[in-house]
Amino acid sequence: MFRALTFASLVLLGIATVAAPAAAAPVSAAAAAYLAAHPGGKLVGANDISYDDGRFVVTITPPEHTTAYVDCPRGWFCFYDRPDFGYPRGKLSSCYGQSLSTYGWQDRVESAYYNLDRGYVWFFDYGAPLFSIGAGFPSRDYLGSAMNRATDVYRFAC
Questions:
Q1: Mean pLDDT (10-residue bins), the chain, 158 residues
Q2: Long-range contacts at 47-56 (CB < 8 A, ≥ 24 apart)
Q3: Would you put residue 54 in left (φ > 0), alpha (ψ -120 to 50) or beta?
Q4: CATH code, 27-156
Q5: Is 148 left (phi over 0), alpha (psi -120 to 50) or beta?
Q6: What pLDDT, on the 0 to 100 scale, is given for residue 10?
Q7: What top-level branch of life does the organism fall under (predicted)?
Q8: Choosing a second label site near 45 at 20 to 30 A (CA), which of 35, 59, 65, 69?
Q9: What's the CA gap between 118 and 104, in Å, rounded?
Q10: How far apart (Å, rounded) are the C-alpha atoms in residues 136 and 41?
C-alpha cells in the first residue's frame, strides 16, 4: 500500500511539474530602457530584443558565460556599439540592402564581425562605401574614420 501511494504521489508530482507554466526570464533594466527608446521590438530574453520577426536582434549586454573576445554567433554578421566588440551588439543574417535606421543603429557601429561561411557585407554612409567584412576577412575591431558613420548595410553573395 505504501509503495502504491508513493508511486501515485510521484506521478501526480510529475504531472503538476510538466503542467506548471515556466517562469518568464527576468528582463534587465538596460533591455527595458533600450526597448523604451527603440520601440517596435520584442523581448526574447533578459538581454535580447528582436525586431522585424527576428531578422535583427540586439543583445544589450554580453552573456555571463561569454569569455570570447568576439562572440558573434554562427550564421550572422554582427556590429557593435563599441570598439573591440563592445556591447550592445546588433546582428543580421539577411541578404541584400538594409537600412540600419530601421533598427535605431545608424551612426553607431564601432566594430564588426562576419560569422558566415560565404559572402561579404559592405557598410555605407548614405550610399558612400565605408568598409566591408566577409568570409575571408571577418573582423574589424576598430573602424577609425568609419566609426559611427554606417547608415546602411548590403550583404552580397548569399
A1: 42 39 65 90 92 94 75 96 95 95 93 97 98 97 96 95
A2: 51/102, 51/103, 52/102, 52/103, 55/92, 55/93, 55/94, 56/90, 56/91, 56/92, 56/98, 56/102, 56/103
A3: left
A4: 2.60.20.10
A5: left
A6: 39
A7: Bacteria
A8: 69
A9: 27
A10: 32
Domain ranges of the chain: 27-156
Give CA separation, 24 vs 16, 17, 32, 46, in Å: 18, 16, 14, 9
Which triple of cell numbers denotes residue 52?
Answer: 522585424
The residue type found at 60 is I
DSSP conformational letter for 5: H
Parallel, antiparallel or unpaired: strands 56-59 and 76-82? unpaired
Alpha-carbon distance 12 to 56, whole Å?
A: 43
What is the residue type of 25?
A
Tell me the HSE value of 37 on the side-chain side, using a 13 A CA sphere: 10
